[in-house]
Amino acid sequence: MHDKRKKAKELMRMDAKKDGCENFETSMARLETIVGRLESAELPLDEMVALYEEGMALVTGCGARLDEAEMRILMISGKDGAIEKKDVTREMCG
């Protein structure tokens, strides 16, 4: 059992280091900053539109990361507790 947990942690670390996806927490923090700036309504229209566009891209990326995490959880808990690694990150973030 200990080996399975160790392997799962290792797989999670490897996935976190992959290029192409920002760190979920970093993206969420940036999104919160964007929302705060947009709510202030003290920005020029062009800047508000640019921030909105960036925010929507972050929402899409965070949604993909959440979907990926859900898929990984289902895969890990699926086959009699056996860890089965599938690379869904490329499809979700690529």
Highlighted features:
single chain; 94 residues; mainly alpha; 76% helix; 0% strand; rod-shaped
Describe the structure.
This protein is mostly helical. It has one domain. It has helices at about 1-15, 25-40, 45-80, 90-94. α2 packs antiparallel against α3. It starts with a helix and ends with a helix. The model is unreliable at about 15-20 (pLDDT under 50).
Indicate the topology:
Blueprint lengths: L1 H15 L7 H17 L4 H34 L10 H5 L1
Helix pairs in contact: 2-3
CA-to-CA gap between the ends?
33 Å
Instruction: Name the poorly predicted regions.
Output: 16-20
Structural class: mainly alpha
Number of strands: 0
In which range does the helix fraction lie?
Answer: over 70%
Strand content range? under 5%
Determine the mean pLDDT.
76
The figure for the number of domains is: 1
Radius of gyration: 17 Å
- The count of helical stretches stands at 4
Summarize the structure.
This protein has 94 residues and is mostly helical.
